[in-house]
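User: Just a sanity check before I run the rest of the batch. Below are the structure tokens for the first item. I only need the designed sequence back.
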């Protein structure tokens, strides 16, 4: 048995996929905030018109695959078509997602795909991480990253000792250069979130995941969304990435068992001491 959690010193986050999710299982409750890709959405065909139909099938979402892999309870705080703006402006409230009965040890935030589409169409702009006031999200302007920051700040207010894992948006090979530039801008802002919020670690699929290319589309998509194998693959990617983060920052996660309690070990484990400490 090897007790060194990082025996391969040059390891990258997705060099190997752990089908169990590894140390992600230390979080007993996980909230997944996102859109259709967080909701297990399948694309069908209307038998009369031949048009597309969309079906959120949560048991096939990567979040529920992650739940079965780790044994953790995972909440789907998501819906097909979701944006950061809509999530903040009523969706979460209407569905009780801010409630004390839905508090989690960790939150995986995977918004952005639909925000990019709307931004390209003249909707809310992407903004930058400078739009985010970590102390009071109400001060954030109405940009995608401004809304993103409001969501994280509200969740941190509800569960101050939770961990956050924002997910970057992979560049899609099919989209035009304008979308690619906006994607880079959004991801730049997401990568700065750990500088603004404690206990925040980026799941950087844009940087470390393989290209979502024609081979990916052929094998893992059903129309414009994922198929069952695709959702399982994403679950393994995200679980393996979080496992990588934990293994490379073991001290930060020593007190996860105290999340949501008044208890702390003031002699060992640095993630909670002090609250304002980065990570």
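Assistant: Here's the designed sequence for the first item:
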């Amino acid at each position: 048995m090897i007790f060194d959690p990082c025996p391969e010193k040059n390891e990258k986050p997705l060099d190997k996929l752990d089908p169990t999710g590894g140390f992600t299982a230390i979080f007993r409750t996980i909230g997944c905030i996102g859109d259709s890709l967080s909701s297990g959405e399948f694309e069908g065909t209307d038998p009369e018109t031949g048009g597309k139909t969309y079906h959120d099938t949560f048991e096939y979402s990567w979040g529920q695959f992650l739940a079965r892999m780790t044994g953790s309870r995972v909440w789907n705080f998501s819906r097909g078509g979701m944006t950061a703006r809509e999530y903040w402006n009523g969706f979460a409230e209407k569905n009780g997602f801010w409630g004390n009965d839905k508090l989690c040890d960790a939150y995986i935030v995977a918004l952005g795909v639909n925000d990019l589409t709307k931004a390209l169409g003249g909707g809310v702009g992407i903004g930058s991480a400078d739009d985010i006031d970590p102390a009071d999200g109400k001060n954030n302007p109405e940009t995608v990253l401004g809304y993103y920051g409001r969501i994280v700040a509200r969740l941190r207010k509800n569960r101050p000792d939770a961990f956050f894992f924002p997910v970057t948006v992979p560049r899609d090979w099919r989209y035009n250069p304008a979308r690619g530039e906006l994607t880079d801008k959004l991801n730049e802002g997401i990568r700065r979130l750990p500088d603004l919020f404690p206990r925040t670690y980026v799941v950087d699929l844009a940087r470390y995941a393989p290209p979502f290319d024609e081979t990916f589309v052929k094998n893992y998509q059903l129309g414009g969304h994922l198929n069952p194998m695709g959702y399982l693959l994403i679950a393994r990617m995200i679980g393996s990435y979080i496992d990588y983060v934990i293994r490379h920052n073991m001290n930060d996660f020593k007190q996860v068992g105290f999340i949501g309690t008044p208890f702390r070990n003031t002699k060992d484990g640095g993630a909670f001491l002090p609250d304002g400490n980065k990570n």
